[in-house]
Protein: F-box domain-containing protein
Amino acid sequence: MDIDYISELPADLKDKILVKLPIKEVVKTSILSSKWKDAWTSIPDLVFEENSPEFMTIRLVDNVLIFHHGPILKFKLVSVHACNEAISRWMIILSRNRIRDLELRFNGRERCKIPSRLFFCLALERLILSECIINVPQNFQGFKLLHILSLFPFKLSGITTIENLVSGCPLLERLTLFDFVQQGCLHILAPNLRDLDILGEYQDLCLETPKLVSG
Structure:
């Protein structure tokens, strides 16, 4: 009898293999053998880089999140579609999983409206948003564990200001802000910030960043 060495791999090694594959290929591993059937449903890093029609992208992400069990530590979506309604329900699932690394990049004509549920992801350590409209809830107390924040291009709506968002991240070490408009002075209060990249429209820049190394 031939021994199926691949199927006998430890679960943690299977996860390391699966996170290196495109998500569509990860799902296809379920046909390898019975022991691989559900292996993809527990990988902690989910990366979707889609050029498919919008309904196909949404269906793929929906199915993966519905059948996934275990922690989701990283979620990355690169899409040409804003997927506004879908993003809202995905954020509910991700916030319950105490996600640490979230990256949403949209390359289409329409910017994605970030749902308020994002601000329930309080375990975030890294947040990257591209082509997004951000409206921070008034009662938001900050991302207390966030180390990296990148926004490009982006727009703030409501009474949200860059100052309020950044000052609510006391552990922030790296900040990138590209292609934005700020009325008046841009005030950055970040006691642990080391790296700063800014390219946008603002009248003046005020930095309270005692640990800044590059900027």
